[in-house]
Sequence to fold (529 residues):
Amino acid sequence: MELIWEGIVEALKLLITLDGEVFSITIRSLQVSITATALALVIGLPMGVILALNNFPGRKMVISLVNTGMAFPPVAIGLWVSIFLWRSGPFGSLQLIYTPVALVIAQFVIAVPMVTGFTIAGIQQLSPKIHLQIWSLGATKWQYLKAIIRETKLPLLAAVIAGFGAVISEVGASMMVGGNIKDSTRVLTTATVLEVAKGNFGRAMALTIILMGLAYLVTLVLTLIQQQERKQ
Amino acid sequence: MKKALSFLLIIAILLFATLGCAKQETKIETPKDETPKVEVPRDIILATTTSTQDSGLLDVLVPVFEKEFGYLVKTIAVGTGQALAMGEKGEADALLTHAPDSELKLVEAGDIINYKLVMHNDFVIVGPPSDPAGIKGQSTSADAFKKIAENQGLFVSRGDDSGTHKKELAIWKKAGIEVGGNWYQETGSGMGQTIKIASEKDGYTLTDRATYLALKENLRLEILVEGEPNLLNIYHVAQVNPKKSDLINAQGAKDFVEFMVSEKAQQIIGEFGVDKFGAPLFFPDADKDPSEYGLKY
Fold:
């Protein structure tokens, strides 16, 4: 019980005084995870649209792979990204392992299937009639795509929330590809693991409070957008 | 909605840009070099054990080195087993580890060079103050381990092929005990985590003294067996053979090895922890002969 109190007090102290290291770790976490989520959106959204709207041989196969990807354990992705980025790996000469870029890559790989999967699900849950309706209004191909995406914006927001939530709270892959290096690849989750190992439970608790707060804030903002859209 | 998305995208791009900048900023200015013919890489990957990071020693040593030589050290704190594997594969530039027997195999194979004695501390056997297996007062670690096994006292092992784990296995072997069963649990994690688990479960464990002292406040564990020469925990530094990979920063690794055995670093090591614990956590050894510890190389 004493530990919990001490922890909370120290956590609040660190938060109120805007402790330099805690602050910079938070900023870095946000930078990495937002970048990864945005890139995942850039790739995952068109991929989801293509998979949902086109029929081609092997399509079901690809979709099943995407769905499996949504449940991939991050630590497995961490290992595979590491293998590719290690000096002995195919991209070793780029020297990306243990850099923030490696973190972005790993988190991107985690988030892409999520965004793609949610996009596919979102488009496919539309009434089949809507496609005919849009075409019959004389839409061009681009207008058609735009209309479809507009219709699925709510599931797409869910995709962004899910992707971001997954990558910012992920620790296994970040530890492996980033190495938890101070001032470089130390993010909220890996810093928490380290502070626990060091016995600094107060700092560790402060970090987790920030982590939970951030996850809540981002989700709150996106939910607000989502609900507003719904009203209109 | 589209607005929101494009807004997010713009933020992301901006963030990514600053990420790039931040990375450049952390690159430390190269000190004046008279013959700047070849640009020396500035990053060094140091593979080391969790104890040097969890105790806080590297947080003191590394910045001094970075400032003096102008490198950026990427410290990867893992178990000694993994650190040595990274050296073997050329994934790291320098190693700071504490399993001399395993390290010497790498030296013989030519995987690591410039192998130097840096410091020691010692291992201690800790356990609950009530000492259910009655190991207190045993003169050797092997006898203590025998008692734990006989009385089926809970023993919490690192189980991660680290230097501490290797040491523990060597003691079991000496005690002639085949480990296994309910009383023997492997955590597969670092020392800080393992010692915490031992404390929560009222178990025994083998730990380096530095980690125990650093975490003591939050533990319900006491030192029960200590002081046996066999329990010394000896740290060496080495550079990975540059032939292992084209990407190895040989000069940087060499500078790091030289720094670790330099008078300045040795003094920092000897003083580290005194203000906080009243006693040093590590003892500098650079001027000692390895044969004093029964090591031949």
In short: The two ends of chain B are 68 Å apart (CA to CA). The mean pLDDT of chain B is 87.
